[in-house]
Amino acid sequence: MTVAAAYAQLGAAQKGRGRGAPAYSLYVNRPVGRVIAAGAYAVGLTPNQVTAVSAGLTFTGIVLLATVPPSLLLGVVVWLLLAAGYAWDSADGQVARLRGGGSLAGEWLDHVVDAAKLVSLHVAVAVGALRFFDAPVAWILVPLGFTIVATVAFFGMILNDLLRARAGVAQAAEAGGSSPLRSILGLPVDYGVWCLSFVLWGAPPVFVVVYSMLALTALAHLVAALPVWFRRMKHLG
Predict the structure, then answer these.
(1) Structural contact between residues 208 and 135, judged by C-beta atoms closer than 8 angstroms
(2) What is the DSSP string of 7-51?
(3) Which of 69, 58, 73 is CA-nearest to residue 195?
């Protein structure tokens, strides 16, 4: 199958738009992932191989954060690596759909890589800040706290899907539609925006402020979401 044919086939088999899916993920990352998926499928890559490429790109960027002194160039390189890794992460599921469906092992691998990158990214910020920033040592609590927030949010969303499936609730019915306003409001908690913030890595005072604001927004979002998720689980029994 050609790239164009694979791309057209994906267009007829896209996932539904989740309720309030953040704008970057919805309007940038998923379409870019679709192009990557079409190309990957055309050259014969498996979903797990696509996941491996995503992991390689992402963790290269993460290692650079923790080991290389900050600069404007480094910030751009890290952003591009993380953003590319995110796009390839979107592509693995789309390749699976082109191949007729993914496997449980592939889904497991995808989630494990996602969990590892979420933890590693914020830990790398803490390590890089300790090594290279003039920020107060106490500021290291921000990326460490961000690690906890991101991990709990990720696990909560995965568990929501798992328990809904166990209860026999269709994902599409639960997800509903997406509105542009909700998508825009979700930008501060979008992983793609977190990646973009690293273009400021070479200007530590600015990065510290922006990253701290993203961390606080993620915390507020999680605090608001947890009771809602709990009530939904109670309703399911």
Answers:
(1) yes
(2) HHHHHTSPPPPPTT--HHIIIIIHHHHHHHHHHHHHTT--HHHHH
(3) 58
For residues 173 and 164, give the distance between their C-alpha atoms in angstroms, rounded to a whole number.
11
pLDDT tens digits, 150-198? 999 999 999 998 888 888 765 544 444 556 767 777 778 999 999 999 9
Q: Report which of 52, 41, 34, 46 is spatially closest to residue 91, judged by C-alpha positions.
A: 34
d(CA 187, CA 193): 7
The model carries a pTM of 0.89
What are the φ and ψ backbone dihedral angles of 205, each rounded to 5 degrees? -60, -40
Those residues of the chain that have pLDDT short of 70 are: 1, 12-20, 169-179, 181, 237
The tokens for 27 are 């309007």
Q: Is 176 helix (H, G, I), strand (E, B) or coil?
A: coil
What Rg do the C-alpha atoms of the chain give, in angstroms?
Answer: 18
CB 127 within 8 A of CB 136: no
In the prediction, which pLDDT does 172 show?
44
Q: Residues near 6 by Cβ (< 8 Å), separated by ≥ 6?
A: 37, 38, 39, 41, 42, 98
